[in-house]
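Format notes (please read before filing issues)

Several people have asked whether sequences and structure tokens are stored in separate files. They are not. Every record keeps both together, in the order shown below: the sequence lines, then the token lines. Line labels are part of the format and must not be stripped during preprocessing.
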Amino acid sequence: MSCSEASIPASEYNPQTRSRLFSLPPEIRYEIFSLAVVGTHGAAKSVDQNTYYGRPGYQTVPCTFTELLRTCKRIYMETWCMPLLLSEHAFCLSSKERSPKGTLSIPSMQKGLDLIHKRHGEIRGGRVRIFSQLKALEATNDCGGVLKMTNFHPTEVTLTVRYLDTWNWEWNEELHIDGAWCGRIELPASVTKFNIEIECLEHRKSEVDYMINGIATGWNFRRSDGVSLESDEDHITISRWTGGSILPGRWRQMRDERRPGCLDYYVGKVTWRPSKNPPTDERPSNPAVRATRERPIYTSPSIDAIMSSINFWGTSLPGSLQT
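Then the structure lines:
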């Protein structure tokens, strides 16, 4: 269902025939309205980048402006579904300190989905992102309830595993992820694109490459209608970004620095799309993937000396060592 299909009886709205806006072609109006309605970070409150969740696209608290929908009924008819379809809806499967304030909750999202369904019926579209600690992900059957919401028909779902959400990152443990959870979840039947992002440090990119290649060639997923989603090495993309090295509690993660005050991240993304094979009741059996390359925990004698002179867990760094 598209926005234009949301009808209001002609006797209940002004067609705005004298408005220059409505003399424009519908395609141009759509572009104008989408720029006004889509979720933005420009005028929103900044997020502290020295956190677990500060990252590209999430430097500020997302804000969607819906005032346009209340301007007049004619505009509402064309824009009512834009906030749902054009914004990325993010959920966090992690501890409270790893989630920004105001994170979208399942109950609040479900309330909105139910209201839209009641007024307009089924609508397919929209993007969802799930940030998850591996501990929570490997224990889930439905991504913390996100995939079990009713009247929920996204076309794209992205699962992001941040470096600070990997197993025992504090101890520089090699990347690894179990695959059993993949066979327990079912993606909504509306999904045409499913992404998994694995993030680590730039100087450990060989581990990320190993992981995403193993995942791309060894893992499959299933939708609720029985359609399988498949991927391969041709569906891999790489991105990079740089964040601060001061973590919550004012710790400076010097072990992972390659430049003062900065951590350079390397992100591998695998994309699955619907298979052309007939639907099946068989659930995928995905193997665990583990990067087993040996490497030292600390790569610099000077860092060794610093780290051995402080209590790693309970004492803040001296001011002279903080940026």
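For reference, the curators noted about this record: Residues 295-323 have pLDDT under 50 and may be disordered. Residues 106-120 form the longest helix (15 residues).
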